Amino acid sequence: MTEYTQDQETFRDVVARFLQAKSTPADVRRLMDTDEGFDRAVWQQLCREVGLAGTHIPEEYGGFGFGPVELGIAAEEMGRYLYCSPFLSSSVMAGYAILNGASEANRQKLLPEIASGSTIATLVLDSVNAPEQVGRQLRATGNELDGAAPIVTDAHVADLLIVVAEGKEGLDLFSIASDADGVAIHAQDALDTTRKLSRVVLSGAVADKIGHLSEAGLEKTWNQISVALAHEMIGGAQQLFDSTLEYTKVRVQFGRPIGSFQALKHRCADLLLALEWAKAVTHHAAFCLCAGEEPETASMAKAMASDVYMEAARAAVQLRGGIGFTWEEDTHLWYKRAKASEVFMGSPHMHRERLLSQIEEAS
Amino acid sequence: MSPEDVRKELSEWLDANWDPNRPLIEWRNILVDGGWAAASWPEDSYGRGFDVRQMAVVNDVFSEKGIVGAAQAGPRRLAAETILAHGNTDQKKRFLRPILTGEHAWTQLFSEPGSGSDLAGASTKAELIDGKWIVNGQKVWNTSAHHADWGILVARTDWDLPKHQGLSYFLINLKQSGVEVRPLKQMNGHASFNEVFMTDAEVAAEDMLGTEGEGWAIATTTLSIERQGFARGRNQRSPREAKEGSIYVEFAEELAIANEPYSWYPQREGRPDLVMKRAMDTGAINDPVVRQEMAKLMSMSRAAQLAAKSAAAIRKAGSNEVVPAGSIGKLGASVIARQSAHVHTMISGADAMLSGSDSAEAGVIAETLVSVPAISIAGGTDEIQKNIISERVLGMPKEQRMDTGPFRDIKRN
Ligand SMILES: Cc1cc2nc3c(=O)[nH]c(=O)nc-3n(C[C@H](O)[C@H](O)[C@H](O)COP(=O)(O)OP(=O)(O)OC[C@H]3O[C@@H](n4cnc5c(N)ncnc54)[C@H](O)[C@@H]3O)c2cc1C
Question: DSSP states of A143-185 as a string?
Answer without folding.
Answer: TEEEEEEEEEETGGG-SEEEEEEEETTEEEEEEEETTSTTEEE
